Every structure is written in structure tokens, then in C-alpha cells.
Amino acid sequence: MDHIVAVQDAVTAFADFMEPTAAELDAIEREMPVILADVDLLDAHIVTLDRTPTELDARRIRRARRRALAARVALLNQAAGASLSGGAA
Fold this sequence. Notes:
The chain is mostly helical.
């Protein structure tokens, strides 16, 4: 008879004592506008899965796509601004 034994790493990989670090939580907080914009875009697409998209649906998807892109650009600009040095020479 073969016994199935759990691998220790797989069992402890999600233990209670393994919480996200402060840096990871800060990164999630910075990315939250992008995450929420992507969720809105997915919601707009999901609405149209079982029917033909109307003009209103198409506008909703376009707006959601623009918001998602704007959120990504804002995040990239914020990251680029933070990585620049203190001033011009």
C-alpha cells in the first residue's frame, strides 16, 4: 500500500505566520487604482457575454478601457517620478 505524504513546503507555504510585508502592502496600495479599473473593464465585458453588445455596452467598454489605460499610465508616471534623482544639473 502506498501512502500519500504531504510535502512540508507545500503545507507550510500558506501558514498563518506568513503575512505580506509592509513593502508588499504598499505596492498593492499603489497598484489598487489599476486593479479596480481592470475589474471595471472585466465587468463591462462580462455583461456582454450572453448577448449582442448594444451601443451603450460598447460605450461602457470603451470608457472602462480608457480608465484602465489611464490608471496604468498614472502608475507608470508615478513610478518614473519616484525613480528620478533629486534635480537637474
